[in-house]
Design a protein that fits this description.
Elements lengths: L6 E2 L2 H8 L3 H19 L6 E5 L6 H4 L7 E6 L8 H5 L6 H8 L1 E6 L7 H14 L11 E4 L5 H10 L5
Parallel strand pairs: 1-5, 3-4
Antiparallel strand pairs: 2-3, 2-5
Helix pairs in contact: 1-7, 2-7
């Protein structure tokens, strides 16, 4: 693992690191259901950057559990779909995702070729995710969007029900 943000991990490593309390486990379960919703409509390629209080030790620093997971999903439009078609899917409705999956979700469809506008978007999200509101530097997590390991991750969440 590299020592600068974003920290690249598998979804299994993410679950094993952050499913440490009942509240965190419930949030992760929602996040995994969110990922399953994306997979169901064909969004299976890309990456996710995960941020927010969920990847911090807010229990110690702020005396509270995290409320949700903040995530930006970078993905190409699946074959046979269009951006307009996808935008009508419930899984892309911010309020629905936040209330049903405890995920504060944002999306970006890069051109997947050299485009300075894409670089501007990456820089924006990196600057947003790499600092707390009080401007202190922090890290964030990078996971692959492929659902290949999600079933294993779901089982690990259930197994970690006995918190260390």
């Amino acid at each position: 693992m590299k020592i600068i943000s974003p920290f690249k991990v598998t979804i299994i490593e993410f679950v094993e690191r952050f499913a440490t309390t009942q509240q965190r486990t419930e949030i992760i379960e929602g996040f995994l259901r969110f990922r399953a919703g994306l997979a169901k409509i064909g969004v299976v390629q890309g990456i996710q950057w995960i941020d927010g209080s969920f990847v911090e030790d807010v229990e110690s620093t702020q005396g509270r559990p995290p409320n949700d997971i903040d995530v930006i999903t970078f993905f190409p439009i699946p074959p046979g779909r269009s951006a307009l078609d996808l935008s009508e899917e419930e899984i892309f409705q911010h309020d629905h995702v936040k209330s049903n999956f405890r995920t504060d979700a944002y999306f970006y469809v890069p051109e997947w070729k050299w485009d300075s506008n894409d670089i501007d978007h990456y820089v924006y999200w990196n600057s947003l995710f790499s600092h707390r509101r009080d401007r202190v530097w922090k890290g964030y997590v990078h996971v692959d969007l492929s659902p290949e390991l999600d079933a294993i991750a779901e089982k690990r969440v259930r197994v970690k029900g006995v918190f260390e």
